[in-house]
Amino acid sequence: MDFPDTTDLSTALEMAQAEQRLAAAETPTRLCEDWRFGRPHKYAAELVALMEQADNRGSVTVTGADDAADAIDKDDRAEELLLHTIGSDKILALHLAHFGKGAVLFLEKEYSAPITITYETDGVFLPTTLIIAAPGAKAHIIEKHVTHGAGAIVCTRLIHAEGGADIAVELEEGGSGESRAMNITNIRSVDATVRHLTRHSKHAWAREETIAEVLHSEPDSPADIQLYSANRLGGHEVLDQHTHQIHDVGHSTSNLLYKNVADEHATATFAGNIRVEQGAHHTDAYQANRNMLLSEDATVHSLPGLEILADHVRCSHGSASAPMDEEELFYLLSRGIPRHEAQVLVADGFLTDAIAKFRGE
Amino acid sequence: MSLIIKDLHARVKDGATILNGITLEIPKGEVHAIMGPNGSGKSTLSKVLCGHPDYEVISGTAELDGQDIFSMSVDERSRAGLFLAFQYPVEVPGVTNANFLRAALQARLPKGEELDAVAFYKQLRGRMKELGMDTKFTSRDVNAGFSGGEKKRNDILQMMMLEPSYAILDETDSGLDVDALRIVSDGVNAMRAPFRSFMVITHYKRLLDYIRPDVVHILYKGQIVRTGDFSLVDYIEEHGFDFVKNAEEA
Q1: Domain boundaries defined on chain A
Q2: CA distance B229 to chain A (A)
Q3: Under CATH, which number does the domain B2-249 receive?
């Protein structure tokens, strides 16, 4: 189903709040720790200018869940006011003030086929996605962002799952080579399992801020969030990824595996943090960032982090960045596979486990 | 039509010289065994012929049916008909056996021609059956998590699928139990043909009892120091390599 443009989405109070936040927030600069490698003087400034002129020219299409999908309405709008960012309050405030349209999924059952949400634009489009999974819901959602020309999609996303829900959300970001993208994603799992995968292709610049909060209502209820990302970057692509895994209560789990292959002049940045709040004992959390560099001119920045305020936890992180394994490449070459194809096979193979884990394979 | 190596000198890149003037001809249709004590240069010879980047040729030539091997890239050598079954087959995470072999076979087809997928899988399953391999290995990543014996079998599977003109088996018997050794040897023997030759590198007679060589060479300190028939294998089995070392000292 296609959602028409919707007007008058906000109450006067909400608009006032949005404007207040916009006035208070500042455009990120080099002094902002969360934009340390994000070249804010270039990309943040450019994004702010684009968002101020947002035309919200774009389409929203949802397939596979006619019973559960709807256009964003006023009540949904209130949710966006509660979102958190990782250093981009200005971007969120601009989104609140200039926001376009979006999709809401309210899932109450098991869906055997994937549900697809597609945003497509050749302008500057500021959509919002809300995915609410009620107890017992099970679904695989594919969210596609398609940006043409010098366009941009700046999307705010809330994924909330409760009471044994099992939700897999896949974000496919596709650009034109000169397009830009930003996603501010908040994930909340309350006694539920949420798996989240992001994949980027051909944006000149893209930034992700993903805040995953693991909660449960009963100490023995399982709550789990798994974050994955797998990207092949080339040309002068810049991908700036920031994550927070937040454990507010004990006996909860989270796992993160972000993998990037950087070729030519591409730049990949990962900055992640696991925060275990006071009293959140018996938390089990892991975070890994792996990068493969295919060119002398490619750059990766990897900043994993832990912030543990509780005892009796199992938390660890790992980071590794290296060129392609020469022995693996030689093995493929020795079977007659031409060098370029061999490199593609090994690079795609490097990313495969993040995708396989997301799919539960 | 032969694999002809003339006065080959080679070294580890920026390091020690390992091959000190190897001259060897393996005509099509023949199986040649290369034996020798540890560190004599057997594996280096195989890797130099296949173009491993850790080694460099100092001087000498190697021709495959009249084509200069050393002027070809690694993948070109393979497509020209050269195959190496590795002493330690490499794990390639994320690349399935089926995709790996499809890419290798596709690379051998003329530009614009697509591999017949149905025929490919039929052939692959047939070859796996011959080698006693479970067909689930088609969807497993290349050698990832395989036992030593499974890796060796997988290399032989690749050889059977790629049907090279010249195959080098580098200590294929190491890591194989008796049953696996017989199955792998049967696979190699089934490929023996007038249009194909083998260089079998091994330390032990047991592999050569199955894959009976036409010619046996002893490599020592980077040179072929003895060439003979199968009786040389029996002699080594009984006396070891001391007679070669003693001759050198004398």
Answers
A1: 12-324
A2: 30
A3: 3.40.50.300
